[in-house]
C-alpha cells in the first residue's frame, strides 16, 4: 500500500505526499497508517534526511479517521482495542521526538485524526484555501481525539480555547488557526512547499514546545484558581447539556484536566485509557452508525431507484406560510428559482415581507451577507397567479392541513403546470394515496414532509403512495439533494413514520399525567432520558385543540370514535377549559413574561398519586412507547430499514440521540428483554404497550435490528 505515498528528496529535505489512489480524500485507514509508518520510519532513521515535509496530493490534507475501522471495534474489550490503536499514538510521539523538524504543509481541510497528525508536526503551514476547515469534531460522533489531540492542542493554544474547540466540535478556517497560533503562516497554494522548506531551513531546535526545558503552556495554569473554576463550570455545563448520556465530552474535559498536570508521555497514556473505553462503547458506535454512515448514505441518496435525473431549476411552492416560505428560502439558498403561490395579492406581499424580515435578521446576526440575501430574494417570486407555474419542473404543496384546501390548490396548480410535473405534498399526517386522488397522475404524486423550521431542520420524509412510481421517487430524491436535505423514504400510512411516533411520546406524557404522575416528574425524566423537552411542553407548542381535532379525526377514520384514549381524555378536558397551549398562553403550562411554568391547576384535575412511580419506570414508558410505534411501522411496511427509522427518529423528533435512534435503542436493551418489559407494561399501563408481531419474531430468533 506504499502507493498511497510518494517521497521526493531534495537538499536533505524529504517531501512525503499523501495521495490515496482512487479516493476523493485521504483517510487514516489501517492500510494507510501501515503505509505511513513504512514510509516515515526509514526517513526518521536516515542521517541524510535533515527535515521532512508532510503534505497531500489532494486539495485537502487528511479528512480524519477511517470510521469503518472505528465501527469494527464495537463491543470489543479494551485489551483487544488497545493494540489496534496504540501504534498511531506511539508513532506520532516518536515523530515529534525524532530530532528532525517536520512540517505539515496543509493544502486544505484537516479534521479529526488528520488534524492530530498535523499537531504532532513541529510546524504547520496552510494554503490560503477559503473552503478549508480545521479542527477536532470527534465529540459530534460520540468520540474523543485519541491521537494526542486532547494534549497537544491545549499545550499550543491554552486550556480554555482548546476545550472550546474540542467540546463544540466546530471547525475553524485557516486565518482563525493562524490567529490562535496553530499555523506558522497562511500562504498562496503555489508557495506552500517553499514556506515549509523555509521553516525547516530556519529551525534551530526541532523539538516540540512541551519537550523543551521550562515549558509553560499559554493561558491559565491548570493548577490555578481560575482553571479550577473553569473546569468546575464546564463540568456543570456539560452535565446540564448531556444529562450524563454522553461519555465523550466529560472524558475530553477529564483528559485536559489530568493530562495538563502531567508530562506528555503520561498525558498521552491518560488520553489513551479514555479512548479505548469510549471507542467500542454503545454511544460512540451508535452515534457513528446513525449520524455518519446512515446520514451520509441518505445525503447521497443511495436508496435512489435507477431513473433519469431530474434537474430542478424552477420550483413551485403552494402556500407562503411558515413551511412554504422556509422551503422557498432553502431553494433560493441552493440556487433554485422558487415561485410561491398565495391566495391573493395581499397574502403574497405579506409572505414576502415576512421572508425578507427573517433574512434581514440573519444578516444583522452575521449568519448571512447582504449580498447573499439580495441574491436569494431575486430568486423568489410571490404571487397569486397560478399561471406563474407554467415552467416549473416540480411543485411542493404546503397549504393548510385540510383535505379540501389541498385539493383545490393542487388542482389549480396542475392545471397551470407542465404535464407530468413532479408534485410533492408537505403533509405530516394525511395519507398520500388519498390525496393523490386529487390528480390525474397519481404516479407523479409523492409526500415530501419537511420539518419546521425548514432552514434549520435537514430531514425530509419522502412518502410513497400506493401508485407513486419509482421514477417519481427518484426525482423526489433528486429534488431533496438539490435542496440540501437528508431524506428518508417511507411508505404510506396514517401519520407515516415520524408524526405517528412523536405523537406516541406526547400521548404517553398525557397518559402519565392522567395516571397521577407529577407533571414536573414527567417533564424532567423525559429530558434526562435524552428528549429535547418534556411531552407536555411539546404538546403546548403544537396546540392542544389541534391535537384533539387530529386525534378525533384519526379515531373516526379507524372507526373507533367511541373509544376514549388517555390522551384524548386529557386533551378534551383542557380544551373545554379554553387551555389551548402556547398560542393562547395557557395549556399544561402558563406562559408569562417570566417564562413557562407548569399550571398549578393540573393537580386539581389529575391528583398526584402517592408514592410516585420510579423514575426508571417513567423513562421506560416514555421511550418504549416510541420504539413500539416504530416497530409497528415495520409490521405495516411503512418502514423497511433500521437506518431509516434511526435517522428519522433522531433528526425528525430528536429521539434520545445518544442511543442512535429507536431501532438502536431496542438493540441496546436486547429484543428478548425489550419484549418482556413491554409485556409487563401492557399489564400495568395499558394495551398500547402490547408487543407487535415484528418484535415477537425478533425476540424468538434473538435477532436485533442490526445483525
Key features of this structure:
globular, alpha/beta, Rossmann fold, 29 helices, about 700 residues, 2-enoyl-CoA Hydratase, Chain A, domain 1, eight-stranded mixed sheet, N-(1-d-carboxylethyl)-l-norvaline Dehydrogenase, domain 2, 3 domains, single chain
Can you describe this structure in just a few lines?
With 707 residues, the protein is of the alpha/beta class.
- Total number of strands: 20
Architecture (CATH level 2) name of the largest domain: Alpha-Beta Complex
Flag low-confidence runs: none
Beta-strand proportion: 5-15%
Report on this structure.
- The protein is α/β, with parallel strands linked by helices.
- It has three domains: 2-233 and 250-276, 2-enoyl-CoA Hydratase, Chain A, domain 1, CATH 3.90.226; 314-489, NAD(P)-binding Rossmann-like Domain (Rossmann fold, 3-Layer(aba) Sandwich); 499-700, N-(1-d-carboxylethyl)-l-norvaline Dehydrogenase, domain 2.
- Helix 5 crosses helix 6 (159-168), helix 19 (498-514) crosses helix 21 and helix 19 (498-514) packs across helix 23 (566-576).
- The model has no long low-confidence stretch (mean pLDDT 95).
Write the layout of secondary structure elements.
Elements: E1 5-10, E2 13-18, E3 27-28, H1 30-45, E4 51-56, E5 64-65, H2 67-71, H3 78-96, E6 102-106, E7 110-111, H4 113-119, E8 123-127, E9 134-135, H5 149-157, H6 159-168, H7 174-180, E10 185-187, H8 192-201, H9 225-242, H10 247-259, H11 264-278, H12 282-299, E11 314-318, H13 322-333, E12 337-341, H14 345-364, H15 370-378, E13 380-383, E14 394-397, H16 403-416, E15 422-425, H17 432-436, E16 445-450, E17 459-464, H18 470-482, E18 486-491, H19 498-514, H20 519-528, H21 535-542, H22 544-558, H23 566-576, E19 589-592, E20 595-598, H24 602-605, H25 615-635, H26 642-652, H27 662-669, H28 671-684, H29 693-700
Parallel strand pairs: 2-4, 3-5, 4-6, 6-8, 7-9, 8-10, 11-12, 11-14, 12-13, 14-15, 15-16, 17-18
Antiparallel strand pairs: 1-2, 16-17, 19-20
Helix pairs in contact: 3-11, 5-6, 6-10, 9-10, 10-11, 12-26, 19-21, 19-23, 19-25, 20-25, 22-23, 25-27, 28-29
